[in-house]
Amino acid sequence: MTQSLFEQPKPLLRRVAFTIPGQPVAKGRPKFARQGAFVRTYTPEKTASYENLVKLSATQAMSGRPPFDGPVELTLEIRLQIPASWSKKRQQLAEAGQVAATKKPDADNVLKAVKDGMNGIVWIDDAQAVEYRISKRYGTTPGVRVIVEQLPLQAA
């Protein structure tokens, strides 16, 4: 019988961790603009700005080291700003982790924006991420904590 990957102890090969400051932004759907007889596709400005912030944070964290070239595990800890319109009591409950962050942005869309922003910097391509751990909660300081760890697995 084979063991699950989650049950096996994994040796730590390479690891990088960093925080993307500010309110997390979900990957926006591509936009289309007509230019004469042609249609041009482009990324929404808010998404492009956030991906550039991811690139900057990732570049600083990598400190000139080469990108990971094999399978990796990606951990995202998404912290959303607690709405100022909430009562003090509800804000305290959210800060204590008693209120689930079920509002937008969706965690999987934030994941897409972060993965695209790390291409060519943390890893060669985001297809290298084969294991994920994602959490989305409210916090007093919004941002995304990113941890990438190389896995002791062969690439296909």
From TrEMBL:
Regions annotated as coiled coil: none
Highest taxon above the source species: Bacteria
Any Pfam family matching the protein: RusA
Record carries keyword Transcription regulation: no
InterPro entries: Endonuclease_RusA-like, RusA-like_sf
Annotated TM spans: none
GO MF annotations, alphabetized: endonuclease activity; magnesium ion binding
GO BP annotation list: DNA recombination; DNA repair
Keywords from the UniProt entry: Endonuclease, Hydrolase, Nuclease
Descriptive protein name: Holliday junction resolvase RusA-like endonuclease
Organism for this UniProt entry: Cupriavidus alkaliphilus
